[in-house]
Amino acid sequence: MAFTVQDYYFRKAKKEHYLARAIYKLEEIQKRFKVLKAGDRVLDLGAAPGSWIQLAGGIVGGAGLVVGIDLKPIQHDFPKYVITLEGDIFDPDFVQTALGDHVPFNVVLSDMAPSTSGNKVADSARSALLFERAFEVALWALAPGGAFVAKLFHGSDFHRLLAEVKKKFAQTRVVRPEATRKQSKEIYILAMKKKT
Ligand SMILES: C[S@@+](CC[C@H](N)C(=O)[O-])C[C@H]1O[C@@H](n2cnc3c(N)ncnc32)[C@H](O)[C@@H]1O
Known about the structure:
- It contains 6 helices and 7 strands.
- The protein is of the alpha/beta class.
- The chain has a single domain (5-194), classed as Rossmann fold, CATH 3.40.50.150.
- The protein has a 7-stranded mixed beta sheet with strand order 3-2-1-4-5-7-6, sandwiched between helices.
- Helix 3 links the parallel strand 1 and strand 2.
């Protein structure tokens, strides 16, 4: 029986003790674009179960900080320089209270995804709302020069959102990592060098 890409990365993550196969998407982005650096302060939106935190934490190390936020609790034991918070990124009071003491960040990551319904148009519209909210939080929370990496289900909002991001960052790329499931519409917009 042939293994799908999904099986392959799922098994690899289990074998390498990572919390989710999603780690290989950020790993590829990191290998290609060196978004994360030792000592960086990183905000990870939609962070559960925590594989991006594992990767980011290992790179930034004790001189840095990783704050992971998700609707679901993040249950893994991370080092002291990792903070995990349960909450909804659309709740402005939560965002202000949770992040007010930690801004500015060097990198804002968002792997947020809606629970999918199977209706591609509805799912991509909900993904676009998550992307827009992540972008809004990133513009508030990022230091000048900072980087933003966020997932988006490719759909009718794609060109509009990419144009918005381009206005605020000096460099942008659209990435579809190899670990992405074949049938998935997801891509990542990578934006570097936030303008002042
Ligand atoms: C694909 S998973 C993230 C996987 C994660 N990057 C990892 O490596 O373990 C997407 C996450 O987005 C979260 N999410 C969706 N909507 C959210 C919201 N409004 N606020 C916070 N998190 C949200 C979901 O709860 C889910 O855990």
